[in-house]
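Long-time lurker, first post. I've been practising inverse folding by hand and with some scripts of my own, and I keep getting stuck on stretches where the structure tokens seem ambiguous. Below is the full token string for one chain I'm working on. Before anyone asks, I'm not after the true native sequence, just a reasonable design that respects the backbone. If someone could post their per-position residues I'd love to compare against what I wrote down in my notebook.
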């Protein structure tokens, strides 16, 4: 307990799934948590949950598609809690799962904006506040989908690949400010997982069997502690890293080709 005592953290997309799990983990470790979430109902609910745990929390309605909204959330965090120590860029706006040739420019722009641009905006806006505190911690979200070239996610894979470049660039340049910048590639039982499990009988069991550890991750118990590590002084000498938090799924990978797509098409 207390690994993040007296720290102020902002987590985008913390109204559910992995973001909510990370928020809970942060609160249990003593951080004041800003839930930067577009959904007012879920955002305020998570804030209440953290307060019931004895933590300090603030919901700020945030649209990661809009620069002013992202930078406004940073400003709100500083105004309410007096500073900012930790930034977790988790949110993104998904697009339909269609093949690369069917992805539109609008889909690409939406994914690039909600992923790379939103992280870029939040990081730049956080920088002066972290410098004022003598350092800071930034954790970005990467994905195994980039490594396997996951089908139907071409725009997402492109954006998450860009997150690697952004993370490493910031780690290299901002180390001089005592700011560490790392990324995690998590898989867990978040909103998307639960939806797929409800729609496809046996999905959860098949998903667990793909992982060397033989189970699916819990957002709070499995993903949250790793992000806590990267946000705490335990990782003071770790920067520019891409860390898989997936029960070993990255070792075998997985086949994402839809069953209805032939091997050859002319």
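-- Answer (accepted) --
I ran through it position by position. Result:
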């Amino acid at each position: 307990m207390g690994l993040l005592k007296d720290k102020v953290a902002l987590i985008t997309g913390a109204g559910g799934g992995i973001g909510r799990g990370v928020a809970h983990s942060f609160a249990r470790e003593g951080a004041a948590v800003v839930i930067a979430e577009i959904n007012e109902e879920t955002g305020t609910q998570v804030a209440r949950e953290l307060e019931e745990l004895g933590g300090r929390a603030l919901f700020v309605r945030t649209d990661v598609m809009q620069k002013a909204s992202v930078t406004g959330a940073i400003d709100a965090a500083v105004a309410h809690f007096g500073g900012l120590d930790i930034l977790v860029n988790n949110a993104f706006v998904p697009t339909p799962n269609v093949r690369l040739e069917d992805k539109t420019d609008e889909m690409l722009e939406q994914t690039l904006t909600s992923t790379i641009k939103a992280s870029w905006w939040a990081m730049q806006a956080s920088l002066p506040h972290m410098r004022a505190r003598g350092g800071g911690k930034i954790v970005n979200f990467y994905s195994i989908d980039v490594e396997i070239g996951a089908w139907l996610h071409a725009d997402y894979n492109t954006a998450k690949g860009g997150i690697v470049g952004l993370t490493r660039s910031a780690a290299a340049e901002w180390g001089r400010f005592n700011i560490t910048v790392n990324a995690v590639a998590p898989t867990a039982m978040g909103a998307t997982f639960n939806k797929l499990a409800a729609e496809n009988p046996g999905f959860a069991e098949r998903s667990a069997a793909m992982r060397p550890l033989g189970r699916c991750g819990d957002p709070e118990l499995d993903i949250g502690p790793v992000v806590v590590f990267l946000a705490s002084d335990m990782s003071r000498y770790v920067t520019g890293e891409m860390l898989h938090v997936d029960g070993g799924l990255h070792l075998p990978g997985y086949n994402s080709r839809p069953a209805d797509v032939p091997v050859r098409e002319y």
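A couple of notes from the structure itself: The chain has a mean pLDDT of 96. The chain is about 45% helix and 15% strand. Happy to go over any region you disagree with.
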